[in-house]
Design a protein that fits this description.
single chain, alpha+beta, 5-stranded antiparallel beta sheet, 3-stranded antiparallel beta sheet, 6 helices
Length: 247
């Protein structure tokens, strides 16, 4: 019998990206790959159980190379926090380009159209039934803008959301780590891309007035003054909590 150590990299939409995780002992057997696949089928959350902050995982699929003929691509996520049997992740890339709100009006995260899109069209396009069951419905706080007394609205119950100004500063250690590249699909839908290849991406916090929303600029700086919520050139980096007890 062969003692086989392997990394849990499974076919399909849920995987640990190569090179990010320590190997997991698969046991003394020859067909480690088959056993790994069986473990994936029996408990799709298993790959998240070895996650650490800073790791990268694949979860769900979404059109990214702007070539629908070859199918959707696996979504890569960065692990931001691990606590109480749950893992907070944010997309590595700007997956799409959407306005924070389609109309020019007073707006909060609670009432904006981007929240509705993330928890409707996006979640249905990106995740299958089993994956949806693993996504925790989180109480998303109505974090205030740290510099402006703009009404942040009320807390919400969401499966998919955006980071706030406070969270963007807390989970990323520097402007450099906040920098983000858009997918080809996002660029085709209007996402701004700088000469360095980076994009702007929305935060859920209000800006300096009720028509603006905060965002991260292409250099990775957090712009608390914000931009017009109806703007159509900022990318979207969804965030969500994975519940490790679900399978």
């Amino acid at each position: 019998m062969i003692s086989c150590v392997f990394q849990i990299i499974f076919p399909g939409t849920l995987a640990v990206s190569p090179g990010f995780f320590p190997p997991v002992e698969a046991g003394n057997y020859k067909d480690a790959t088959i056993k790994a696949q069986n473990m994936r089928l029996e408990n799709p959350s298993i790959v998240f159980k070895i996650c650490q902050v800073g790791d990268c995982v694949e979860f769900g699929t979404y059109e990214q190379d702007n070539d629908a003929s070859n199918g959707k691509e696996a979504i890569e996520w960065l692990v931001l926090e691990v606590q109480n049997g749950k893992i907070l992740i944010i997309s590595k890339y700007g997956l799409d380009c959407r306005p924070y709100n389609t109309d020019w009006e007073d707006i909060t995260w609670e009432t904006c159209t981007l929240r509705k899109w993330l928890n409707g069209e996006f979640i249905n396009a990106a995740f299958n039934k089993d994956e949806k069951q693993m996504i925790h419905t989180a109480t998303v706080p109505a974090d205030r803008n740290p510099e402006y007394d703009t009404n942040p609205g009320n807390p919400t119950e969401d499966k998919v959301f955006l980071l706030s100004v406070d969270e963007a500063n807390r989970y990323f250690s520097s402007d450099e780590t906040r920098q983000c590249r858009p997918t080809e699909h996002a660029v085709a839908n209007g996402a701004y891309q700088s000469d360095s290849g980076n994009c702007w991406w929305w935060l859920r916090s209000p800006g300096d007035n009720q028509n603006n929303a905060a965002y991260v600029n292409n250099n990775g700086g957090v712009n608390v003054r914000g931009s017009g919520a109806h703007g159509d050139d900022s990318a979207v980096r969804p965030a969500l909590w994975i519940d490790l007890s679900k399978r």
